[in-house]
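Sample pair:
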Amino acid sequence: MAKLIYAVICSLDGFVNDAQGDFDWAMPDEQLHAFVNDLESSIGTYIYGRRMYEIMQVWADFPGIEDEPAVVQDYAKVWANADKHVFSTTLDSVSTARTHLHREFDADRVRELKDTVAHDVSIGGPTVAATALRAGLVDEIHLFMHPIVIGSGTPVFPSELRQNLELLDQRRFTSGVVHLHYRV
């Protein structure tokens, strides 16, 4: 059975973006990007909400990718080789290969996906992740906490969620980013 993994970049005060929706403070350096690539190499399927899918679809046709560092090119290959499931009530269609659009989040469908795929599944975007967390579907959480306090924005976790976690690993990067890996 595959694990459902919520991997998220966030500020020290627990937001994925600021009040304007920006996350320019979260750009990974080469060391962090290489670590994320290694983590993502076990992923065979991505689950997204609309906004995260719209952000991530740049990886399908990244302009000037050949001029980017090897870690960026490597991630583009990982993303392109994975299946994607987008849960959105507002998105009309998807434009990337290996992508399926679903009108509403279906916990049973996600359970079935976990039971049938050969590789782990990543869930991205705090809204869809909150739904999966509430449904008891998330197996692991990877937080990449950046050394910045932004005051407000979209929270990593829903406010009403109470969840015990087991710390499996931690790592500090030279940029000051701290990676915390938990089992739910």
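The first strand starts at residue 4 and ends at 11.
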